[in-house]
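JOB MANIFEST
job_type = single_chain_structure
chain_count = 1
residues = 392
[input]
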Amino acid sequence: MTIGFTSRAVVSTCALCTASLLVSAPTVAIAGVDPGPRTTAGALLYRPGTQVRPRPGAPEVPDPSALSWLVADAGTGDVLAAHDAHRPLPPASTLKTLFALTVLPTLPAGIRHRVRERELAGIGPGSSLVGVAEDRTYRVSDLWNGVFLSSGNDAVRVLAALSGGWRATAERMQTKARALGARDTRVKSPDGYDAPGQVSSAFDLAVFGRAGLRNHDFARYCGRREALFPARDGGTYDIVNTNRLLTGQDGVEPYDGLLGIKNGYTSNAGNTLVTAAHRDGHTLVVTVMNPRSGGGHAVYEEARALLDWGFEATGRVDPVGTLNLPHAGQLGGPQADTATIPSARAGDSPSHHPSWPIAAAALAGAASVSLYLRLRWGPALTHQGERSASHS
């Protein structure tokens, strides 16, 4: 395994954050050996290849086939190991984590809404759907079940319409990403459907997943295994979470202590997953993006291997970076993600706390020139305009 290579970054400053200069130099790496002294916090994560800093006796890090992956301690924010953590890749429906972080606090769960036909316009071909029907009334909580369990792009469309519209929601998501310190993400389609220029990274998705665990309603929705969804005829039907590592469906063994979060797939992005699990007083968050071998369930098995390694390696490796980057809350701006990380249980009902009006949700403190860091990766990215054959 190669640990660390040269990298180049462009650094700029902004009023909201103080940028650090990332300096890199050629390294000679040996598997299982720290490539050198620590530089700026997080600089290792901008180097291509696998980054890990094992202490004597630490378990050997797995070698997944995914283009990018990351393992972090959700409590401390320490990144235990990563591979091409900031590589920009299409995220598929894992981007719905950012959608939920942006919109969930603005819409009380008990609101009832009668869906209009125009609110379902523009859904991409091949999108996964939960079955939202025009002229049917839904609670906001029903729609969130559709987003988290069925990855329903139809439910996303309606919630975005309730939250100011498709384009405004994308802009607010972009602002939210910056407020969380996630600089790799470019939002074009709030549901994660393939769109030109839309990318995220294993690092950013881990930031979103960790923030989601700190929101009690997000944590309950993402950890729910099944729910009843209103049918067109006035009845209900069962929907089951598409995260097979949570449910154990399709021959995938469920992971003990899994808290859920979000999976995704498009023909352009491949399979993607951001997930978390809790064991022995520790919560880990893992991102896996686009496994290159092993079939459609490889994303779950590679995540399983990384979770197993992370729990065994906790306290036996030194961090290679941190998810605790400057964001609006640390700099005096809005800070919503203050709850402790919960242990989500299937079947829990989201709390119905009062929320600010929808318009007030756009305050995320947006307008400034921000730190922009970009790597020049060897292989060119796949075409972002390719449409999905299936999207979950």
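[summary]
The chain has a mean pLDDT of 81.
The first strand starts at residue 50 and ends at 54.
exit_status = 0
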